[in-house]
Sequence to fold (170 residues):
Amino acid sequence: ESTAPESTAPESTAPESTAPAAERADPAAARTAASSAASSAEDWAAVVAGLYALRAQAFASATAEPLAGVWVEGSLQRAADEEHARGLADAGEVTRGFRPTARDVEPVSVTADRAELRLTDGWDAYEVVARDDPDGPALRTEAARPPTPVRIVLLRTTAGWRLASAERLA
Fold:
């Protein structure tokens, strides 16, 4: 089950986001975090934070391209996220304030090419706004997801760490 609204990341070919500057993820920082060799819980937390930032960028810009830097190719959760981003784009909408967070990141099993982590993630309520008026009134507010225990599996690709799966444990 996906852990968001329903790794050196490659350079995104996504158009410039219309979201306010404070809402946009820093793709370079996300790429660095997602590609680094992680060994400690803090390192893994940085990798996850980078992946989550790219995911938020996809919804803040209503473009699926950043998701290639988040999920492995063929992931059902990637397909769901891409569908969500396309749905936002088709409706002329973007998200404002969607910032998934992860804490208590603990490696469970780590090899050179695969990592299983347990963590707690969630997000505050966020708004959906018109793409052509990202600073304007909210069209609707989406509910927060309280902190939830999650098990994620990451795979190392030639471009860096990518999420293979994310499963809520509670």
